[in-house]
Amino acid sequence: MKERLEALKIEALEQLSGVNDPQTLSDLRVKYLGKKGALTEILRGMGALSAEERPVIGQVANDVRGAIEEVIDSKQEQFQKEETAKRLQSEKIDVTLPGRRGRQGGLHPLTKVVQEIEDIFIGMGYRVAEGPEVEMDYYNFEALNLPKNHPARDMQDSFYVTEDLLMRTHTSPVQVRTMQSMKGEVPVKVICPGKVYRRDDDDATHSFQFNQVEGLVISENIRMSDLKGTLLQFVREMFGSHTEIRLRPSFFPFTEPSAEVDVTCVQCGGSGCRVCKQTGWLEILGGGMVHPKVLEMGGYDPEKYSGFAFGMGVERIAMLKYGIDDIRHFYNSDMAFLKQFGRL
Length: 344
Prior knowledge:
Oligomer: single chain
CATH architecture of the largest domain: 2-Layer Sandwich
Distance between the termini: 75 Å
CATH topology of the largest domain: BirA Bifunctional Protein, domain 2
Structural class: alpha+beta
Strand order of the largest sheet: 1-5-6-10-9-8-7
């Protein structure tokens, strides 16, 4: 058996010396060292050897395997170096080529509109207040003159978490929280931007989740004319210096008197078109004088102080500003749509 092993070694080394490609090298490894290879075939006869011969033959077999593996490993390393050299030669990088610019993100159109609204009101001396989106029923309804079983609650189908906890249906609760935190001090002059939630079916003009910005001013001798002047200044900065507004009587439980506010159509300038249904006006928000009961629940004496409040839908403002006809464009992550508003 020793002679067979030595002969196998000579044969294998002779075969390996002439190998010039990785595939042939792999085939020879299998032929001589594989599970069904020549070396394994010889070693199967060790069971017939005596106890004295087995260690000797085992040592010879290990020497033969080691010699063959050494040559194979050396050849394999040589082939890998040659392959690397070829790749380095063929895959040169032209460092003189201009680089590829990474895509830069941009602000979402709703974010841009909210920031613009905030900038306008901050410029008029307002500060920005925030509150929780998961709100207590007390702040969302009761403190805004909407007690339990009040018929006006039917105007807003809500997402309730528990009997006394819900997803806020407007940002007006922030106004109540602000009044309570001020503890009767004046002036109060805040805007409250944020997301709100209502059980609306999604269509071109409605969504179950949207954005609002509400405003609140409380001090002595605040009048309806102050509200009108504030909103006129706002719409002229948002839509252009020639924009006009009109107030139409309306009803809100938390303001009295209340009004719907229209602006001259941003498309036709008030002359009448398809967008404004030939009226020349577009509704954008609602507002009015803070109801005395709301002032009381907020910690203010309605005999001494008065105030106004208003609320607007950010999507509505954005649709008018940019001429968008479907609110769903804001939420569909359409890159072609979003690229119109900044770098993307």
